[in-house]
Amino acid sequence: MSYMAVKDLKKTRELREVLSRDREVIVTKDGKPFALMVEISPDAVEDSLDEVRRALFSAAVKQARKKAVELPMDDESIAAEILASRESRGL
Question: What is the value of pTM for the model shown?
Answer without folding.
Answer: 0.65
